[in-house]
């Protein structure tokens, strides 16, 4: 606490304004996304019982404005007259502005003002210039807190709207494929990042072509609508090239040129400096084989029917798409057997870079080795559940999983 005459209301409220995330849209609950209030919730919105400590923190933060007002009142009553609890009274509405909807902020500001008036007008209290200054300061901060609450809520709604638009656009670009494509069993899964994270540029597509079933899984650098726009370019280029190009290497080169054209057309700093990692695969018709071209992407996994796992590492890795200015490496497809009952798993780094509380990465190769699954859908469901357990709820990056099985 500070002595009278040296108070600065703004300084005491500075910390309080940082915890606010996106406001609750129905106005009935404190803010959740991005703040302490959301930390005990898992990715699917259910409470994460594996981390009970966060529930305690969330409850404490929710009642923090009330505690500040109570502490200020007690301090003012018990402390010598030369000291004041005004910093606590001014901090309460500022904290409420970041945590509560408008009604809660107004109530917190009013309660702070009533408390400081009650203390200053209590029997035996001296009404001097310092007391009047305290009352005026708390009143002004309460009004500022209401204004800040409106700004934070409006910004939160705009961010939520932008994310929803980006998610809808991305899901329209990468719809769930049919369960059977070209005689192969197919399953795909898109796991969004935890609440408050920006939408990423993960992509996938599966297509039956005259050359076999071709698929792509990739990850565009960047977040938001810029990444979604790049996804649209790559998906469009893949669907066209997969039909027209005789080799998988030529498909990869078409994608590279398409991304370069888009960067030149937009002439934006993000796109010009951006890139995309992709892995392309082809299962030729009538052959028990799979061919892979990897452009800087996490390596696909091949799970045989007996649980044997193979990591499809290419002999000569190539640069990601959009980085041809750094050098030229010829694309060379890697081919291996793909017998009946085997499953090919492609994924983005949202899987392989998912971390637990100790910073340990999730390693899909070691986790899946020796295991047998009923089909692609069962494999992806198991992976998604394991990643949620590994991370304690949600991931910091979007995750795409694509699996195909030869019956």
- Secondary structure class reads alpha+beta
For the record, give the distance between the C-alpha atoms at the N and C termini, rounded to a whole number: 73 Å
Mean pLDDT, all residues: 79
Coarse morphology: elongated
Structure overview:
This protein has 2 domains: 2-162, no CATH class; 174-405, Phosphatase 2c, domain 1 (4-Layer Sandwich). The protein is 44% helix and 17% strand. It is built from 12 helices and 13 strands. The strands form 3 sheets. Strands 3-4-13-12-9-10 form a 6-stranded antiparallel sheet. It has a 5-stranded antiparallel sheet with strand order 5-6-7-8-11, covered by helices on one side. The protein has a two-stranded antiparallel ribbon with strand order 1-2. A hairpin with a 2-residue loop joins strand 5 (201-209) and strand 6 (212-220). Helix 3 (64-78) packs antiparallel against helix 4, helix 6 packs parallel to helix 7 (224-244) and helix 7 (224-244) packs antiparallel against helix 8.
Q: How do the strands and helices of this protein lay out in sequence?
A:
Blueprint: E1 2-3, H1 9-13, H2 52-62, H3 64-78, E2 83-84, H4 86-99, H5 102-120, H6 129-173, E3 180-181, E4 184-191, E5 201-209, E6 212-220, H7 224-244, H8 248-266, H9 269-272, E7 276-283, E8 289-295, E9 301-303, E10 309-311, E11 334-337, E12 343-347, H10 349-352, H11 364-368, H12 376-391, E13 399-405
Antiparallel strand pairs: 1-2, 3-4, 4-13, 5-6, 6-7, 7-8, 8-11, 9-10, 9-12, 12-13
Helix pairs in contact: 3-4, 3-5, 4-5, 4-6, 5-6, 6-7, 7-8
């Amino acid at each position: 606490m500070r002595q009278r005459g040296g108070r600065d209301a703004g300084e005491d409220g500075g910390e309080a304004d940082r915890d606010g995330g996106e406001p609750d849209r129905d106005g009935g609950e404190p803010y959740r996304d991005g703040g302490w209030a959301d930390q005990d919730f898992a990715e699917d919105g259910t409470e994460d019982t594996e981390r009970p400590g966060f529930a305690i923190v969330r409850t404490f933060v929710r009642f923090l404005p009330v505690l500040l007002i109570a502490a200020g009142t007690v301090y003012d009553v018990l402390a010598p007259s030369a000291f004041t609890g005004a910093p606590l009274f001014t901090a309460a509405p500022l904290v409420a502005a970041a945590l509560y909807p408008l009604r809660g902020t107004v109530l917190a500001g009013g309660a702070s003002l009533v408390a400081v008036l009650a203390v200053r007008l209590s029997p035996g209290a001296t009404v001097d210039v310092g007391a009047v200054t305290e009352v005026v300061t708390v009143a002004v901060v309460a009004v500022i807190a209401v204004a800040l609450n409106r700004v934070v809520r409006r910004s939160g709604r705009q961010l939520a709207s932008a994310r929803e638009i980006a998610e809808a656009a991305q899901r329209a670009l990468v719809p769930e494929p049919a369960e059977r494509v070209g005689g192969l069993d197919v399953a795909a899964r898109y796991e969004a990042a935890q609440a408050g994270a920006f939408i990423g540029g993960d992509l996938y597509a599966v297509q039956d072509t005259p050359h076999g079933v071709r698929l792509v899984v990739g990850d565009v650098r960047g977040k938001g609508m810029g990444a979604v726009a790049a996804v649209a370019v790559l998906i469009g280029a893949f669907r066209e090239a997969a039909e027209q190009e005789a080799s998988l290497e030529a498909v990869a080169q078409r994608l590279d040129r398409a991304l370069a054209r888009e960067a030149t057309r937009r002439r934006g700093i993000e796109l010009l400096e951006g890139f995309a990692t992709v892995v392309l695969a082809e299962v030729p018709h009538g052959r028990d084989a799979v061919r892979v071209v990897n452009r800087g992407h996490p390596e696909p996994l091949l799970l045989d029917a007996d649980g044997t796992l193979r990591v499809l590492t290419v002999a000569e890795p190539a640069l990601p798409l959009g980085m041809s200015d750094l050098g030229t490496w010829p694309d060379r497809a890697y081919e291996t057997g793909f017998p009946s009952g085997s499953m090919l798993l492609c994924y983005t780094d949202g899987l392989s870079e998912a971390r637990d509380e100790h910073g340990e990465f999730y390693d899909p190769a070691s986790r899946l080795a020796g295991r047998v699954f009923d089909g692609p859908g069962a494999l992806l469901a198991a992976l998604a559940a394991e990643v949620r357990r590994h991370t304690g709820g949600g991931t910091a990056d979007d995750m795409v999983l694509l699996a195909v099985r030869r019956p």
